[in-house]
Amino acid sequence: MNHTHEQNKIETNDPDPSPVSFTELVRGLLADQFVNHRYRLIIGFIALISVDFLQLSIPLLVKKAIDSLAAQEATMTRLFILAGAILAIAISVVALRFVWRMLIIGFSRYLERHLRNRIFSHILSMDQYFFSRRSTGDIMAHGSNDLAAVQMACGMGMVAAVDALVLSVAAIGFMINIHPTLTLFALLPLPFLALTTRFLSAKLHRRFNQVQEEFAHLTEFARSAVVSVRLIKAYTHERSQVENFDQLGRDYVHANIRVALIQGLLFPASTLIGNIGLLIVLVYGGRLVIDQDITIGDFAAFTTYLQMLIWPMMAVGWVANLTQRGVTALRRIHGLVTSKPILVDSSHSSSALPATSGFRARNLSFSYPESARAQLSGINFEVESGIIGIAGKTGSGKTTLCKLLVRLYPLDHQALFFGGRDVNEIPYELLRSQIAYVGQEPILFSDTIRANIGFGIDEVSMEKIEKAARDAGIHQEIIDFSNGYDTVIGERGITLSGGQRQRIALARALLYDRPVLVIDDGLSAVDTATEDFIVTALRRRFKGKTVFIVSNRLKLLSMTDRILILEEGRLIDDDDHQALLERNAFYQAMHLKQMQENEGLSHA
Ligand SMILES: Nc1ncnc2c1ncn2[C@@H]1O[C@H](COP(=O)(O)OP(=O)(O)O)[C@@H](O)[C@H]1O
Ligand SMILES: [Mg+2]
Question: What is the pTM of this model?
């Protein structure tokens, strides 16, 4: 693959994460959600901060209890009052924690849903170009990871940030109030705690990603093995497949152990550093008590505040990681939802209906975005109306030509004309509304035959559906099913043959009743007699209109008005059946081969 070529073509449309500023990101993707849910957030954060202050008041109560005990002036009533107050606080903390969790984490879930909907509706609005660059699975997988990262940052990330800030500022305030110098010494080890968590949680995150990757390998391997089980058996590769699977399983376990290792390190390391602070308080603070600079109650409260600081310090490192990941993810989401379809209507386009259903290609060349070479080159033809066959070897460009006719990809100016107008100057929707397309693989839904044929059209009469099915040569078979047109097909219903599926797809296309019909090899599984019937019906329906049929079957091609022969992306011949039979080598070879096959059949 030629990368420079690829980049030249698609760079303008690629989501480019760098130039968007943080404010733009927030304004573009988050702000409206924060505003819409403001009451939820305000109440949530009030609950969160209340929890912090309630927790901070507990050491004060303990200090009171200890001091009155030390001064020998404690009464049982006094102790019960203090204990009752602590119990009340503890219960309120539980209730308020529940409140903020519901409100703030709930908000982050709403936000996630909102962003997911935006991604989804954006993907639906994109054209084929977008999907030829990345697989849909890829988009959704990245999308989900990114959404989870944003959800975490705006949920627990925000909670931890506010919580840590309030808790640490207040705790340090109380500590300074007890003894400033002691506070200074006690806090010395804490920055190391923040650094350690930052380092370890980044490492944890990387290793956790590896676990997910290994798991993806494992499931992808299992999936493809199941899909190709016949092939594997045919080549008796079961044993090596099992061995490969076992190896992947081992990798997965290994990755999990590496995660556990860091998890096992994170909390003990943090506690260790936290306890060093406690050591300092014990020695220096103990000395202060002996010197009667602070009371025993002060001493006890101080150690409790110090313990309270361990979590905020850990949170600093954790929040920094969450934020960093959240912003990166938000950038990618922004890039995704702001990428534009390449097929945009030009300002010259006019919404007047094209006068005819004719096509003209003028030196038409095309290459797929990922491809370095041209898939079609220098094609010229002019078609007024009628049934046009398209033939050529596999890979010669037949499907590509069909996709261009229905304008799935952008094209150079002045290369393809429809109804006398450059396709680039016909609004995209209008052009598509003029052309019905039947692809190589019929797309049917797990629904009734009636719904499959009538798909995409509101309020279509049964009469029309039947007429379309008749012309597609499938009506008789449908009414032979026990439920007729109400027969359900697909996973929940009956299984159709390839030819039946193709003809139902054709009936759907006929129902659209558009001036142009493009059938890309859509009759390949239909038997010759039915094929005959269908082409005759098409001729009746499309009088003065245009039908393109890709096929390599002589019988079908002989019934068309004209045949375009492609070879390696070039149009090497363009004439009717008889003329081609006389002079075109590819056509003659095809004729000879199919004659022999028919004889083979009749002798059998
Ligand atoms: N999405 C794509 N991206 C890049 N190359 C493609 C794509 N689709 C088809 N091609 C290439 O274009 C050429 C023509 O393919 P196609 O039009 O499908 O041929 P046909 O329908 O005649 O068998 C082939 O070489 C094929 O590999
Ligand atoms: Mg094809």
Answer: 0.61
Nearest in space to 339 (alpha carbons), one of 132, 119, 137, 25: 119
- CB neighbours of 191 closer than 8 A, spacing ≥ 6? 313
Q: Which atom of ligand 1 is nearest to the CA of 392?
A: 22
102 CA from centroid of ligand 1 (Å): 53
The two structure tokens encoding residue 365:
């060349």
- From 371, 566, 571, the mutation candidate for ligand 1 (largest count of ligand atoms within 8 A of CB) is 371
418 and 431 in contact (C-beta within 8 Å)?
A: yes
Neighbouring C-beta atoms of residue 589, cutoff 10 Å:
10
If you take atom 12 of ligand 1, which residue's CA is the nearest one?
Answer: 375
Contacts (Cβ under 8 Å, ≥6 apart) of 321: 198, 201, 202, 205
Residue count of the chain: 604
Ligand 1: nearest atom to the Cα of 400: 17
559 contacts 551 by C-beta, under 8 angstroms: no
Separation of 440 CA from ligand 2 center, angstroms?
A: 7
Residues 6+ apart with CB under 8 A from 25: 327, 330, 331, 334
Q: Which tokens hold the place of 590?
A: 């095809």
Note the pLDDT tens digit of each residue in 494-550: 888 889 999 999 999 999 888 999 999 888 888 888 999 999 999 999 999 999 999
Q: Ligand 2 centre from 111 Cα, in Å?
A: 43
Nearest ligand, measured from the Cα of 441: 2
Q: How far is the CA of 374 from the centre of ligand 1 (A)?
A: 10
Structure token pair of residue 432: 């598509």
